[in-house]
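Quarterly update from the structural biology core.
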Amino acid sequence: MGARRRSRPARRGFRLPTRPAVTLVLLLSACARMEPPPGGPPDAEPPRLVTTMPESLARLPDFEGEVEFRFDEVVSEGGAPSQGSGTGDLERLVILSPTTRVPEVRWRRSRITVKPDEGWRPDLVYRVELLPGVTDLRRNRSTDGAVVTFTTGAPPPQARLEGQVIDWSVSRPAPSALVVALLLPDSLPYRALADSSGRFSLGPLPAGEYLVSGVLDQNRNRRADPREAFDTARVRAASGTAAVGELWAFVHDTTPPRITTVRVGDSVSAVIELSQPLAPGLRLQPRDASLLVLPDSTPAPVTSILPKPLDDSLHAKAVPPADTTAPAPVQGRRPAVPGAPRPGQATAPGRPPLSDQLVLRVPRPWSPGARYAIVVRGLRNVTGVVGEGRGTLVVPERGAPDSLRGGPDSLRGPADSLREPPEPAAPAEE
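Predicted structure, tokenized:
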């Protein structure tokens, strides 16, 4: 009698997936990637904002939800998702006031939601701004922004601050400058960005006294960093619009200017480059500069030492006559002028331009191959800090390019080592 075959017990909890199940898994994995639907005409319209929540100027004492921006289509989260560090693509488009902490920004398909990382505080006026730049899945970019203003118990805001931020280093409006309005005495920061012409209109805000700053936000982190140029004004705002005026931003250095390089300008001038701009209106006299012939430190005379814009205006070369044989400019197009501001970058009148260069002039031409030590006293920066600068001028040999430069602060030793030139010898008697 043959042995009976024993059947193996079936494994529990394991079953090969059927064909419909495999198809469902593939469909779910494909849906995990947000892509525009295939077929049909290409979508060239950017996402359009449909509604915002809460309503404008709503008073919500017990608000615990999220501010919501709803669009008419699915928007893109961007290549860098929001992680609370302020580096996400959507995080960069949101400015929440009055706080300096990175808010919690969430992507919810056709909605973008915002709330403070620390939660909503009572009796405050909140301002949530969504900047232009939201894109859809086809990378169509919206050029419109939106602002939601509401209170968590405070009275409705009725004040507005208006002004313009100017980059003083170039005397031109500062596009997209950061504007920070600190509500005193609690230092609540309300933030916004200036437009392409440097102008801003920040509001509605609660009434009170503000310390308004215009900042050249170079790293685009929506914060005022120590080395960034800024200017401030104190303004009291009640109901209506309060004029801030012009904010001329400059770097507030706490150290005096120093000489970085010295180079030959022409046969009787030298250009002194400084580490920072000088105070506007500063006029140095020839006695404020010492020119010493090295290596003996023999004093040499100085005719003038002036900021470069002023020296250029006093020693401007004659302009050659216009070339009548040149072709006429194209109709409707302005001819290019070297150094002229581009459209939208017109110079801003009102203050003299800043300069970080001085021109030192001497009565006699430089000696080829000579080296000169230069000491300039009374260098005052825009903040008002005064100091002394030292440098070295190396005059090229004949036929060599005049691009040689002396190192910064290369002159060492006390200033009282200066010597007067020796008296001329008496003529010999016959």
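Helices lie at 19-31, 308-314.
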